[in-house]
Records
---
Amino acid sequence: MNDRYRFLCAVLADLGHCGRWVCAVIERTSEYASLLAFLGLFAVNFIFAWIAAVYVTERFFVSDAQRKLNEQHVRWVNSLVVPARS
């Protein structure tokens, strides 16, 4: 595996760790603020992980033939949709 992908995995794992640390610090002052901070950091971490998973899947698990079929399918679907005119 390339070093870039190892770095990406380490950053995603560290985001979760940092989120727990930040929430623990906030929890000392307010439990409710800690919950909101956790939910926000969880959402950010989830979005980054989703983007990384899509990138890795498309890069390593989708063949050129599958990519070509997908592009043809997208063109076919787009040909069925009539653009709206204002």
---
Amino acid sequence: MTSLSEKADSIFRDAPSTGKGLEEIACLIERETGTRSDFCRLYGRRWAHAGGVAGAVIPEERLTIAQGWGVILENNSLNNAFWQEIGRLLTESRPA
């Protein structure tokens, strides 16, 4: 069985853009775990939307997942190791 992080990796690598990849990963995570996520670029203290689920996310939790990247979470059921793996994808294999 393919893990959620492996599915996310495959989706992100095949995405035509970073934003589209993040939207598809957020949909996968919500569908499989019920966790709503909004990925953000970090500029100092400012969190700027980069991609995620459609509609507003109730900001129950904010995590920095890599240098310059964060995620706003609602109903988070995943551990920090998973989110760090997603952060690694963002820094190592960003699509154009």
---
Amino acid sequence: MKFREIAQQMGCTTSYANALYRRAMWRLNREPHWTDPLGVRLGNTLLNLNIQNKEEAMTAYLNRTLYPGKIKNYGVKCHQEIAKWLGMPKPSRDNS
């Protein structure tokens, strides 16, 4: 099947269908990264804080380096997401 036919079925342009294909192939062929299970915002926050692995993320979570309002783009939802990923109880909105 050609990209023109795919684009017609998807209702988009040929170049957009091609871009989707290239992005999907890149994702399929790259090495997995430890932040892959996380949302983009949380993953970028951890990388910007130079947190290199899940163990360092756990340490930062436990010593409250990661706390809503202390870090730009890290709020209650990110805090709840990392708690779930680390296997910690879900923090409440009152005492995150």
---
Amino acid sequence: MRTVDLTHNPDIEVIGANNSLLETLYITRVNKLSRVIVNDSRLTSESLDNLIHAVVYNGVYGGAFNWGSTAGRPSAISIQSLRALKQYRGWTIISEA
């Protein structure tokens, strides 16, 4: 499975796609995400950016985001957003950037 559509699940709290073939992920901006693990996946840069923005838009305090080595790289704006999550919302960010 290379594409997953989670746009109809606003109650999603955890996304785990570690070591997966997942390339494209669609997610609603309304969510309850507190943990995201997409390390060693094939997520595209666009999917990774969308996921980061979904977390920023509705993320909770004290979550964790692990994007490690993905096929795509987050944009400069997304990296700034991850830093803000860490600084202002107490998120743990694990990456190779």
